[in-house]
Amino acid sequence: xxxxxxxxxxxxxxxxxxxxxxxxxxxxxxxxxxxxxxxxxxxxxxxxxxxxxxxxxxxxxxxxxxxxxxxxxxxxxxxxxxxxxxxxxxxxxxxxxxxxxxxxxxxxxxxxxxxxxxxxxxxxxxxxxxxxxxxxxxxxxxxxxxxxxxxxxxxxxxxxxxxxxxxxxxxxxxxxxxxxxxxxxxxxxxxxxxxxxxxxxxxxxxxxxxxxxxxxxxxxxxxxxxxxxxxxxxxxxxxxxxxxxxxxxxxxxxxxxxxxxxxxxxxxxxxxxxxxxxxxxxxxxxxxxxxxxxxxxxxxxxxxxxxxxxxxxxxxxxxxxxxxxxxxxxxxxxxxxxxxxxxxxxxxxxxxxxxxxxxxxxxxxxxxxxxxxxxxxxxxxxxxxxxxxxxxxxxxxxxxxxxxxxxxxxxxxxxxxxxxxxxxxxxxxxxxxxxxxxxxxxxxxxxxxxxxxxxxxxxxxxxxxxxxxxxxxxxxxxxxxxxxxxxxxxxxxxx
Length: 495
Prior knowledge:
Layout: H1 5-8, H2 13-21, H3 24-60, E1 156-158, E2 165-167, H4 182-193, H5 199-210, H6 216-229, H7 231-242, E3 246-256, E4 259-267, E5 272-277, H8 282-288, E6 297-300, H9 304-307, E7 312-315, H10 317-331, H11 334-355, H12 363-383, H13 402-412, H14 414-417, H15 419-422, H16 431-447, H17 453-471, H18 476-484
Parallel strand pairs: 3-6, 6-7
Antiparallel strand pairs: 1-2, 3-4, 4-5
């Protein structure tokens, strides 16, 4: 039978009787066509349902229940539900907080005296009258800003005995007849790579405040010089992170000449290292050179490329909490709420134990939390049974629901999820790595991207050094000046 699907769906009773009258074989062929049509419709319906499910899931996700940034929320007015437990403290400054009001300076830099020459009542001269007391005020303000030009004179003397020409030694950072000094160059790097000003705005600021008209080439050369001087410091940071007991890893997209690159970070509470690369996964991670040598605990968000390295792993539970919130809201599954509460309870117990000076939970608490974790997973799997079979035309892995995918990961990677419970050095989340990437995203919002790969590399090395300085509570401007004097500070490795 050659009838099309559309014609079959429009057959009248008379046409059906006509097929019946043609005999058994005609009826069999007709029914087979209907079965095929039904199978195709069922397959299309399943695919459409899958697409609708994906679209509904995408629509239901925002910053509070996924890894999407708050800027993606658009005009949604829904209030973000915090997963943090209340501390019991009131908002604002706490009792004993030192505050930040201006303090009286005992030895001011300058003193202005406003004399009383005559009496405002009778006009009598008061020049020789002694002062009873002073009405005092102090004003904290900037001095008038302008470039200072220092002429360096190196004496040249000829020895009368041997006729040797001798020259007085100038500082090592003076390399030409007329140049900008280390403070100004340090300020250029500070504005570009710390305050994240685009080149043109950096030039405008220096012109408006200091009255110096530097070129874009001068600014670039200063940043290039900083990059070169910091090479040994960066190698030191990489080596220190390789031997760190805990290190954080993360990555984010970055544009280089309009093309998608990836900016990677490896960091600790004292050190930061950035690397920009055309790849996101293994190739880039190997080129960074930290994880291939790393034997501590790597904290990350679960990117598969990280899992292949022979070290302990700690997964970011902030990501898990957001995923669990999504499951609870979108699928109304109670196990997700239970898992949220369990993870937060463990976090609270760990923090309280740390405050008490303990280095671990008791075996009883570990057993209780582990058992509870597994019980919740069992309840979740009962609500999300595995997919029975593939459709005839489908290929690859079975498509599973988001709840089932999350359950599989929580079960397979249980030790990494709960690493913070077993090792107090490991944090609950990967917020350190995410914080270290946050300002990189701010730079992208301001400047858009990098004009060249070299420009991205300059930013990464300088920004990594600045981030390290900030973590170690050093004055960034002073330290950048030392870089241009050829004497950069080597960061402290561990507390």
